[in-house]
Description:
Elements: H1 12-21, E1 25-30, E2 38-47, E3 51-57, E4 61-62, H2 68-75, E5 83-86, H3 92-97, E6 100-104, E7 108-113, H4 117-123, H5 126-136, E8 141-146, H6 152-164, H7 171-180, E9 185-192, E10 195-205, E11 208-215, H8 218-222, H9 225-239, E12 244-250, H10 256-264, E13 268-271, E14 275-278, H11 283-286
Parallel strand pairs: 3-5, 11-12
Antiparallel strand pairs: 1-2, 2-3, 2-4, 5-14, 6-14, 7-12, 7-13, 8-9, 9-10, 10-11
Amino acid sequence: MESLRPPLLQSPEYARTLDALGLPLRRGSLGPDSAPEASWLIQSRHMPLLGKVELLSRGPVLGTPLLPEDWWPACRSPRGTPLLLNATGDAPERLLAAGFWPLVTPATIAMLTLAPPETMRQAMHQKWRNRLNHSLDAGLGIRRMPLTPGHWLLEAEAAQARARRYRGLPPPLIAAFAQANPGRALIWEARCNDTPVAAIAILRHGPMATWQIGVTPPEGRRRNAMNALLWDAMCWLAAHGHDRLDLGMLNSDDAAGLTRFKLGTGARAERLGGTWLHHPALAPLARRLPKRLAA
């Protein structure tokens, strides 16, 4: 597993979190432990009509180029439990051939390469860099601290998610991640006149990290506090051995401003592989679907 680059939902840190919460989890790999060809973490859900369903999100994590027919026989449940796959970059026609039924078209994420500060500055869009410069002159105090269950950011994130009607990892799960992985969940907080005006939470997993939540009240937006926070986090993460920062999903329709903000950092847009269902009763039909339905 150490030779792979798992996203948050496939990381050993996330597995420890689910274990600590007593949530069902099935894990596996192909190849030797020292240099696995693939690894996966599979969760369980109960869904209307389908009953028990397994969930493989952002996986499997591949160490070598493998097709679904290479990893699926080892990955599938011996009981034939239906599986929802939030795919990464698998060839859609090969997923059809393996019996997966396409459900949802691929989402896109923003992935930022971490590097020395000057390199990251050069990769920024000009407007983002200008706002960063403004934020650095805005009288903000930036603090980094371990994420704790009582920090105001978690409650503010829950309220923001309700107001904007989006779903992310629940704050209690984020707090559980921090408790199960000491030092791997951090908060960056911006203050002005000793009053919090913005904060972000970063979860660290292997050589990667994920920007999980962020809240900016009006005063923080006026001072471009989010630019200052993310920049401080980028530099710190790069200096502490991380080479990628996952900035999360891009949604140009419902969150165009946030999409511009993420890409303005110099992050590249990465298209994932869509959501697929493998069900024993549907697999024979899925193999006969036209390839255009998987595009």
